[in-house]
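Assemble and predict.
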Amino acid sequence: MEAATLTPGSTAIKPRILVVEDDMHIAELVRYNLDREGFDVSHCDDGEEALLRAEEDTPDLIVLDWMLPHVSGIEVCRQLRRRAGTLTIPIIVLTARTEESDRIRGLETGADDYMTKPFSPRELVARINAVLRRTRPALTGAMLNYADIAMDTTTHKVTRADRQVRLGPTEFRLLRHFLEHPGRVFSREQLLDSVWGHDVYVEQRTVDVHIRRLRKALNQKGEADIIRTVRSAGYALDASVH
Amino acid sequence: MEAATLTPGSTAIKPRILVVEDDMHIAELVRYNLDREGFDVSHCDDGEEALLRAEEDTPDLIVLDWMLPHVSGIEVCRQLRRRAGTLTIPIIVLTARTEESDRIRGLETGADDYMTKPFSPRELVARINAVLRRTRPALTGAMLNYADIAMDTTTHKVTRADRQVRLGPTEFRLLRHFLEHPGRVFSREQLLDSVWGHDVYVEQRTVDVHIRRLRKALNQKGEADIIRTVRSAGYALDASVH
DNA sequence: ACAGATGGTTAAGGACTTATGACAGCGGAC
DNA sequence: GTCCGCTGTCATAAGTCCTTAACCATCTGT
């Protein structure tokens, strides 16, 4: 049982993907598959609009058809790479062309990956994940979430309801442990073991003090206490009212 | 024209590529083409050795054959992803298999890209550049930017808010490393590994001194400190107020 | 209601981590 | 050879955080 239902990252925010494709048939196919994989998909069928959307509502990744009416895919790609705001958005190109020179041109223009039609939706998903793994580690698991608390372990930053939270090293480790096992109750002894270390000898009551500091940092004016005290058992992370 | 990214005569470092391929014929073909594009190619024909080499002489990218004697490519890939030192090395898989399920398995195991034989050497080069552009922009001679800091890796010039910044060699490499992974926290040990090199033995505290020198050069009168100290964890580049 | 047990809160000393300034060694430029 | 800039190390200063202990508050069983 255990963390099972709430593995790290499972509550992470959905990666937002913009699909630019004029063939409605294919667009639907892609949308359906990405939807099912837990992506937040939006779609448009025109190069001009793609540029606008990319700029004002920056997606995490763009799936771009090479053959578009009006502005071609290659032009969209070039434009995206030119502007600072969209420079780093990963792009996966979708195309009917199988010519090698086209593929190379696509990659050299700034695309991150390339797939030729007909393509396998599952492979598209796999490639999207491979690209996101590189560019947005935060989207793929370095992030711990519970209720309105978010911890980025690579940045060592913690927020509650979008407000930045300052923690000392021990409070950070303590919270991480709770976030890795949300809801579960830990005795002081267990906490000392897993947060402090097997071989460290400190008073059990020391845990209380750190719990207090963690609470103080987490529960600012008006916010509900998110750490539950279980009398004669220990402490747990718990967002429900108690 | 291409390798492009690596302007002739530029001072940029050659990206180091490890090719793991047991078919000597293909290995030679790949080596020849990568060589010509300005990569620093090394080669081995065995999975075991690939793992050793990757660890002790970390390449910037690995081109990995899926079918190897003894240890299979997929196993090598998995092992590389398991160890901290090799976790982030980009991998492009090379294979004769065209089965979709194999392709997907490759990407899900941690490969960054995938090419089926027979393949075009030029496309391989294009894909390598596309991956490197993401993972090690500095190697492709690109400009590194973060907040109001700009680094031109080909001219070795650094500016903050348009003011020229003077850096020693070590501070330059340190800043480059931070710029390649903005926001991320690195321990002193990690920094020694990636900025100084695996085999160099220096005191961890030495990092502090260079951080201080970097800060002094970067944060002149009144400017906010852009390097964040994360107590008992390390340092990070961070423009937000902290 | 009471005594004992359990948890909350606070303050202070001390342990630990980081910042800083100084210095000697090294190697290249001239 | 001398100058100069860079590097690694150390000693010491400056901060920050951890632990402890003492005292209150609250809960539980009788």
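The radius of gyration of chain A is 23 Å.
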